Amino acid sequence: MRVKVVCVGGGPAGLYLAILLKRQNPAHDVTVHERDPEGSTYGWGVTYWRALLDRLYAHDPDSARAVAEHSLRWNQGVAHVRGQVTRQPGDEGHGIGRHRLLAILADRARSLGVRLEFGSEITADDPPEADLVVAADGVHSALRTRHADHFGARFQEGRNHYAWLGTSKVFDAFTFAFAETAHGWIWAYGYGCGDERSTCVVECSPRTLTGLGLDRADEGEALALLEGLFAQVLDGHPLVTRTPAVGPLPWPRFRTLTNRTWHRGNLVLLGDAAHTTHYSIGAGTTLALEDAMGLAAALREHTALPDALAAYERRRRSELLGAQSAARHSARWYEDLPRYIDLPPHRMFALLGQRHSPLLPYVPPQLYYGLDKAAGRVGALRVLKRRLGPRVARALQSRSAGDRARSAGARRPRPPW
Fold first, then answer.
1. Which residue has the higher pLDDT, 411 or 46?
2. SS3 sequence, 129-161?
3. Which distant-in-sequence residues (6+ apart) come within 8 Å of 177 by Cβ?
4. pLDDT-based confidence at 409, cuts 50/70/90?
5. Strand-pair category, 132-135 with 4-8
6. Angstrom distance (rounded) from CA 118 to CA 14
7. Residue 110 burial by CB count (10 A; 0-12/13-18/19+): exposed, middle or buried?
8. Average of pLDDT values for 333-355?
9. Residue 307: C-alpha distances to residues 14, 129, 301 (Å)
10. For the segment 170-226, what is each residue's pLDDT rounded down to a tens digit?
11. What is the value of pTM for the model shown?
């Protein structure tokens, strides 16, 4: 059956969904509207892992080959702490420039007959007419906001501040750098995303931000300060912003978005319009592409649109649980950095790799390191950790919450009656 589909938003989610729908049925009428001009995008590069590349090959080999060809690869992580460098092997990771990824997907979509309308903004007051309207217009989705009461969007703001920067230094591994200052620690995540550039995300606590004056420094002063702090890993290369800022360099807090529901009538949310996960797990683009795979599959499997949208939401919510849990624990690890930073660097880096564990916040770091090392040597302990870890973590979390509540109650003034 031929259907008319309008995707609002020309990011990875909207473009990949358009590709998949045209591959499923070339007769589908698919249009992608992107408000920005072609070739303009925010950010620098995106990361993904081998499992996603395998899925891309299964869904559309042509675009997968192009993505793989233009990606950098690494299979280890590097941490710089107090002048020491620690390397650890890891899963095969990939980095690609966001601009390059979007160009690959746009070219592939056009080759399949998708209409791409750049510089075309769809307003919430004038929604498009189509059998299916896909809101892939990002975390601040106008189409979602128009029906805010229905979708029930909820934002939760993290504690730390971050700046999303680029550099001409090309990292050969996923690189972490931790710099100690008189006002606390500040750290950077760096990964290559092209032959001439890397992404470099800098993060710190509110105390460190204000203590260093980064909340007040203009862009040039802030970048110079950061280049000095991370000189060991930048090797003389500058840090740059995508668009020059007027006034202080922006230092937002990450906002995690969830929605009560993902669809309304013929309107469905996709990618960041539906959900976000903390940048420290490097999964935003992966989850957006997997959303597109999930929605395309649901539309193929169900002839009735309400059934398809309900199935898509149900499946993707379930599949996201692991990533959302990992993101929460990852963000907390960095917010609790003083708990880990005084460990020997190789142990600290090992626990950095374990930051997704729900049990880690409740076990002394040195003890957790020893238990994890033992579990790695004994298969039975590995299975026990995987099965019991989340249960023990939930029990400890409930106990901790109860202790805080009782403590607050004990401190609460007794009412005059």
1. 46
2. CCCEEEECCCCCCHHHHHCHHHHCCEEEEEEEE
3. 79, 80, 187, 188, 190, 230, 232, 233
4. very low
5. parallel
6. 13
7. middle
8. 95
9. 21, 20, 9
10. 999 999 999 999 999 999 999 999 888 999 999 999 999 999 999 999 999 999 999
11. 0.89
**pLDDT score of 277 more than 50:** yes
Contact 362, 396 (CB under 8 A): yes
Split at pLDDT 50, 70, 90, the class of 417 is very low
Pair of tokens at residue 295: 């929605």
Tokens standing for residue 195: 């032959």
Distance (Å, whole) CA 401 – CA 404: 5
